[in-house]
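Folding Task

Wanted — backbone structure
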Amino acid sequence: MAKKSLTQTEYLDEILELIIEENDYDAEDWTRKEVKACLEAASMISIAHATDKNGSPIFGVGKLRLHKKKAARARMGRNPSTGEEIKIKARPAMYVPKLRMSKACKDGCAELVKKKNKKLAQKFKAKKNK
């Protein structure tokens, strides 16, 4: 069964736990509301500076930048289920946000994938040996 993604409340609780543990704060020093306000402020700053030439850094994660996507002309396509010919509308040029991951984030994700793959391999071997 696939693991569910974190809800916003669970995400804020984990951040709050880390802040308290890493900085030796009392649990009363920070509230979930304050953590949410900090994250929203950081998000607003990153979005506002994404148009800069070098993008906006999101510390520990990467850089947020805007990427120009070319316009696409109108064309004919085919509905795969019915085989009917359809007209696909033209799409104007637009800017889309792109996140360029930092080396630390890439390495951390790679480590997590390795650990997960090892666990899956062990489960597979256990089933095979039964």
Remarks:
- The beta strands are 56-58, 62-69, 75-78, 85-88, 94-101.
- The mean pLDDT is 85.
- The first helix runs from residue 8 to 23.
